[in-house]
Amino acid sequence: MLTDEQLKVKTHSGGHALVSAVAGSGKTEVLIQRVEYLLHSGISVDDILVLMFNKSAQETFESRLLQVLGTDHIPTVLTFHALGLRILNIWQERKHLPYINIIDDSGPWLDIARDIADSVNSKLGAGIPTHPDQLKKFLAGVDLLKNLDYPSKSFDGSNYGWSDIFIAQLKLFFSEYEAYRCEHNIYALSDLLYDAVLLLRREGEYAKEGRSSLSHILEDEYQDSNSLQQWILECLTGEHSEIMVVGDEDQCIYTWRAANPGYTGSEFERRFKNVPPYTL
């Protein structure tokens, strides 16, 4: 049995919704029933997208959805990385471009980072250290800059304890990193969503197509969203789309990866007008 507030979330209609859900509030069950309700209301499975924060949560939600619906024809459930990959793959196939080569092992990236540092040091005398521990720091810095939507948005490195010297070196490393990736057609996981955002910004008609294909988007763990994830959420929101986000500002644990818990409050309400708040 659902509580009155859970039932309101399940049957919400008429626009976007912001759901505050503390731990143990039954949010996953409510989201499952929300999807079931939408389908029973006549919404096509192809018009619904569910976004989960990580692979484990995505697999668990998808498994429960399969069980509840009793069919393998269910709405798309993705992580943001997987969403980025899908956006890129569709474009690559249409344009007959080379397939995306994802390197998810840290070993090769250390070798790549060393090549990048050597190149920057040789051309610009940047003095970037090449010890493995330092290279890991630069790779982590690149990952963070991408989550911050750099260079489209500025950043304050002091928030992460970065020195002025490191910030200057990191910007040079970042530029060379991007050039290296383009030349060798390689991707780390953090590159997938970043490149998908760049693609949608560059190809307006492709972005418009994505907006017109979805009527309902549901996102869990919204408090851990970063600038890139927020941008793509807004990009995929069409004129008649409805977004439901679920999160708890007090549970944000990924600020070190550029998560912005402010999205779960006034920021969401500012970007999407007339949003009814629910509390589980």
What can you tell me about this protein's structure?
The chain is an alpha/beta fold and 280 residues long. Helix content is 52%, strand content 11%. It contains eleven helices and eight strands. The chain has helices at 4-10, 27-40, 55-69, 80-94, 106-124, 132-147, 164-184, 189-202, 204-212, 227-235, 266-271, and strands at 17-20, 48-52, 76-79, 101-102, 186-187, 216-219, 242-247, 277-279. Strands 3-2-6-7-1-8 form a six-stranded parallel sheet. Helix 6 (132-147) packs across helix 7 (164-184) and helix 8 (189-202) crosses helix 9. The longest helix is centred in the middle third of the chain and has 21 residues, at 164-184. The relative contact order is 0.17. The model has no long low-confidence stretch (mean pLDDT 91).
Compile the SSE list and pairings.
Layout: H1 4-10, E1 17-20, H2 27-40, E2 48-52, H3 55-69, E3 76-79, H4 80-94, E4 101-102, H5 106-124, H6 132-147, H7 164-184, E5 186-187, H8 189-202, H9 204-212, E6 216-219, H10 227-235, E7 242-247, H11 266-271, E8 277-279
Parallel strand pairs: 1-7, 1-8, 2-3, 2-6, 4-5, 6-7
- Percent range of helical residues: 40-55%
Kindly provide the radius of gyration, computed on alpha-carbon positions and rounded to a whole number of angstroms.
20 Å
Mean pLDDT value: 91
Choose one word for the global shape. globular
SSE pattern: HEHEHEHEHHHEHHEHEHE
The strands making up the biggest β-sheet line up spatially as 3-2-6-7-1-8
Number of helices: 11
Number of strands: 8
N- and C-termini, Cα separation: 14 Å
Strand content: 5-15%
